[in-house]
Design a protein that fits this description.
Number of helices of chain C: 7
Order of helices and strands of chain A: HHH
Low-confidence stretches of chain C: none
Number of helices of chain A: 3
Shape of chain A: elongated
Largest sheet of chain C: none
Structural class of chain A: mainly alpha
Helix content of chain C: over 70%
Mean pLDDT of chain C: 85
Distance between the termini of chain A: 55 Å
Mean pLDDT of chain A: 88
Largest sheet of chain A: none
Largest interface: A-C, 71 and 83 residues
Number of strands of chain A: 0
Radius of gyration of chain A: 17 Å
Structural class of chain C: mainly alpha
Distance between the termini of chain C: 55 Å
Strand content of chain C: under 5%
Oligomer: heterotrimer
Strand content of chain A: under 5%
Shape of chain C: globular
Radius of gyration of chain C: 21 Å
């Protein structure tokens, strides 16, 4: 039997890697991918807790998270494509005209 | 009867309103204004008659029109009264006032703003009457301020001249110093007596404070190491108020400058009536002054010193009106000194006679100015007695009265003051006042010689006598100056008896030796003055120095400048204020106030500017800050919000 | 036995994530992420959630990552980050924060190591997709319908955002 806390630990590590991905990478698409990673980490933790408590509700939550993540990815990438059409670059640092 | 006494101040007030709102023509203005004041004089005579028909202890009529101020414990009715003291003051004000109004018709003829002039004069008479007829200190103060206002308006009547405007402001400001003390006195009186009323309004009414001065006997006020009696404090404050209004040392500097106004104004306001307001105040509040030995000493010495200072200054002036102005200050000093010595009747007596002959002198001076085409410097005059006979004779009578020559009015009143001084042991005061009377005779002789004798030194004008509308008042006043002494002759004591219910004085004995010495001295000094300036007439050059200057040197210069008091004020008070105003306007306002207000704005602008750097525009830095926030929240939830 | 499986899968997941983080080429990153998703799917299976394992593979690995790859290829945005970073202190600070976050979450996570329940009747029912389905169509029917709606909106949004010649 694997203790729940191991899963939570794994989830934490993956989440941190996702955060680092958002902060460190400049390619917009890769940033997006890191966000997906974070979502997955959260899903993992939820499922682990579901198993511990034998509560199916947590799995329902995960189901919804996955669905909404899919929708979000679609729209986000569409936005990115639209921006790319004007800017000709996917570098996130280039999109910085809204400054003080 | 009550309605009768209300008519006295109301008639001139109606004249004022008519002149302000209705009248447009010069002729109507003069007639209406003079008529109103003359009518007021007649009513006053009738009122005096009514008063005389009452038994002496009951001679006081009080009448309230409405409750002026009605707030809990502070009640002030709009109430006037008529008693013997008020009666004589009112007779002087309306009588001399009416004559001066008539005179003004001639003097101010052709002036573009003459209707306004008569309006101001009528308003002045109204206010002065309220001053002397008030039954409470606040209404008296209303009149006090009112005459101050009219004085300001009339001194600066010819406001196109810079000197007139400045003199008007100076008069008002110096007066204000006295007024501040007056207000403090009112506050003190209200605190200790609970009322500002002088006398009770009728049978069974609450007593006014003059009727219960005993209430504050023995009360002390002030710090523990130097308490003073309440009566001393209050009377001293009233003294300061009187000093401002009656031009005593050190607040007399405004009166000589006030000569910038029209001459009838000088006659009415600055000789006969307004300046006597201070003396009236002290006579009216006599119970308070009598209760304080300390203050009486101050009063006497201030009066005597003022008399001497101004008397010497008058000897060295070249301007015809300035001589008379300093003379007025000097004679007021006599009155004030008399009050201080407890000789209130003598003070009032001198007030009345002085009012008559000083007004006469001023009006005659005006006649001289008028007849010499606006010349005021006596060095330009000379030999006018043949060209202006009526003016000369009336001026001479006025001069003799002022000098105190028997049997004219001034002799009797001045002598009574000197006799009181000797009789009550005030020897140093007597000496000062006696010397001042000698000086008075001297400078009047000097003035008569300079103006009327010798030859005309300035050929640029052709002198002529003034019209009848101006000379008739002169003659009337001259008659008054001659017989005025009859008011209080030594044996008959009409005035003393008349004022006894108010001032509670008994008549003094007549000092024959003193009378003789005084008269001889006055005649001698008067003749000396006349003699010096007629024999040395050739040495008087236009714009040149006084012949005596050779022998006296700088003392004469000091006298001419009234002992440099004006210059002292200029260097200290005025200069200090100017520097303060300069600092406020040039430094404090732009740097301090503006700096503070603008500084707030600038501070926030600067703050916003530095905070702008946070908005880098880079999404990743925002994400960074985001992460920091997340960590903080987690930390908070874990370790603090247990 | 289960523990060993868990460790291997976990390591693969972490490796995939780190590789995604590190690689310069966007396509490589996407593929490594795909690996990570697959590992997570296996972990779901280990956690007695077969239905989610299927969903994860189908939606995430199958649809979302493919979409990512499409966009990368479409934009030609493989090698974007050849130029050095403009914000000087971004990297060190980010690493620091990441470390802090890791420490905090480890501290939290390891407090209370509990064992999951053993084999039982309830467990079998728990892992049955029918249980999940029943819940989805009864208690959570409204959220279920709403997610359908969200997907519809997403589709419309995508179409609108990418119309040529028309401003967004």
């Amino acid at each position: 039997m694997v203790p729940t806390s191991y899963y939570v630990l794994l989830s934490a590590i993956l989440f941190t890697i996702g955060v680092l991905g958002v902060l460190l990478r400049r390619n917009a698409i890769v940033i997006f991918m890191a966000v997906e990673l974070m979502l997955n980490a959260a899903n993992l933790a939820l499922v682990a807790f579901a198993r511990e408590r034998l509560g199916v509700e947590a799995q329902v939550i995960v189901f919804f998270v996955i669905t909404v993540a899919a929708a979000e990815v679609a729209v986000g990438l569409a936005l990115l494509v639209a921006i790319f059409r004007t800017k000709r670059t996917a570098d996130v640092d280039e999109v910085s005209t809204l400054k003080g | 009867m009550e309605l009768l006494i209300w008519l006295i101040p109301l008639l001139p007030f109606i004249g004022f309103l008519l002149n302000v709102f209705v009248i447009r023509r010069e002729r109507t203005a003069g007639l209406v204004a003079s008529g109103m004041v003359a009518a007021a004089f007649v009513v006053t005579l009738i009122a005096v008659g009514v008063l005389a028909s009452m038994p002496p202890e009951e001679r006081r009529i009080v009448s309230t029109a409405w409750e002026w101020i009605n707030t809990g414990s502070f009640q002030v009715p709009f109430a006037i009264m008529f008693d013997p003291l008020t009666a004589v003051m009112a007779l002087l004000i309306t009588g001399v006032g009416a004559l001066i109004h008539v005179y003004s018709i001639g003097y101010m003829h052709g002036d573009p703003r003459v209707v306004r002039y008569f309006a101001y004069l009528n308003l002045f008479v109204t206010m002065m009457l309220f001053l002397v007829m008030a039954n409470n200190l606040l209404l008296l103060f209303l009149g006090w301020e009112g005459v101050g206002l009219c004085s300001f308006l009339l001194i600066g009547f010819w406001f196109e001249r810079k000197t007139a405007g400045e003199a008007a402001v100076k008069a008002f400001v110096v007066n204000r110093i006295g007024d501040a003390a007056f207000i403090l006195a009112m506050l003190a009186i209200f605190t200790y007596f609970g009322t500002l009323n002088f006398y009770s309004e009728g049978e069974g009414g609450a007593l006014g404070f003059l009727e219960r001065v005993g209430d504050i006997a023995g009360l002390r006020v002030g710090p523990n190491w130097q308490p003073i009696f309440v009566s001393t404090a209050i009377s001293f404050l009233l003294l300061i108020g009187a000093t401002g209004k009656s031009a005593q040392f050190p607040l007399f500097v405004w009166l000589p400058d006030a000569m910038a106004g029209p001459t009838p104004v000088s006659a009415l306001i600055h000789a006969a009536t307004m300046v006597t307001g201070g003396v009236y105040l002290m006579a009216r509040t006599e119970p308070l002054f009598v209760a304080s030995f300390t203050t009486q000493g101050w009063v006497t010495w201030i009066g005597a010193l003022t008399a001497l200072m101004a008397g010497t200054a008058a000897m060295a002036q070249w301007d015809i009106k300035r001589v008379l102005a300093y003379s007025t200050v000097s004679q007021l000093g006599f009155m004030v000194a008399a009050c201080g010595m407890g000789a209130y009747v003598a003070a009032i007596f001198h007030l009345l006679t002085h009012g008559i002959f000083k007004a006469l002198l001023f009006l005659a001076a005006g006649s001289v100015i008028h007849g010499t085409h606006d010349t005021q410097d006596m060095r330009r005059m000379g030999g006018l007695k043949d060209a202006m006979p009526i003016t000369f004779r009336t001026y001479l009578i006025g001069a003799l009265a002022l000098a105190g020559i028997f049997p004219l009015a001034g002799f009797w009143s001045k002598d009574e003051i000197l006799a009181h001084a000797v009789g009550h042991g005030h020897t140093p005061i007597f000496i000062i006042l006696f010397i001042t009377s000698l000086f008075t005779a001297f400078y009047m002789g000097r003035q008569v010689a300079l103006i009327f004798f010798g030859t005309q030194r300035d050929p640029s004008y052709h002198p002529h006598e003034s019209p009848q509308v101006m000379t008739v008042p002169l003659i009337v006043l001259a008659v008054g100056a001659i017989i005025g002494g009859a008011i209080n002759l030594p044996v008959l004591h009409w005035l003393t008896n008349w004022l006894e219910p108010v001032l509670h004085e008994k008549a003094g004995a007549f000092n024959l030796w003193l009378a003789l010495i005084a008269t001889v001295g006055a005649v001698g000094m008067g003749y000396l003055g006349w003699w010096i300036y007629t024999t040395n007439a050739a040495k008087i050059k236009i714009g040149g120095k006084d012949p005596i200057y050779r022998y006296s040197g700088d003392i004469w210069e000091g006298m001419a400048e009234a002992w440099y008091l004006d210059r002292l004020y200029q260097r200290t008070v005025v200069a200090g204020f100017e520097r303060l105003s300069d600092f406020l306007a040039r430094v404090f306002d732009p740097q301090g106030v503006d700096g503070l207000v603008m500084g707030v704005g600038r501070f926030f602008g600067g703050l916003a500017n530095s905070l702008r750097a946070v908005q880098t525009g880079y999404v990743r830095t925002y994400a960074l800050v985001f992460t920091v926030g997340v960590l903080l929240v987690i930390g908070f939830m874990l370790w603090i919000a247990r | 036995m289960e523990l060993i499986l868990f460790l291997i899968t976990a390591l693969i997941a972490i490796a995939g994530a780190v590789a995604m983080l590190v690689s310069r080429n966007a396509v490589h990153s996407a593929l490594f992420l795909l690996l990570n998703f697959a590992a997570i799917a296996v972990l779901f299976l280990l956690l007695q959630a077969p239905f989610l394992f299927t969903i994860q593979l189908t939606v995430y690995a199958g649809a979302i990552m493919v979409l990512f790859l499409f966009v990368v290829m479409l934009l030609g945005a493989e090698k974007v980050e050849d130029t050095p970073d403009r914000i000087a202190w971004q990297q060190p600070l980010a690493l620091l924060l990441g470390l802090a976050l890791l420490v905090v979450s480890v501290v939290v996570g390891l407090g209370g190591a509990t064992n999951p329940p053993p084999e039982s009747e309830a467990l079998i029912q728990f892992s049955d997709p029918r249980t999940l389905g029943a819940l989805l169509f009864t208690d959570y029917l409204l959220p279920f319908e709403v997610t359908g709606f969200i997907l519809l909106i997403a589709v419309i949004g995508v179409v609108v955002l990418n119309q040529r010649g028309r401003k967004i």
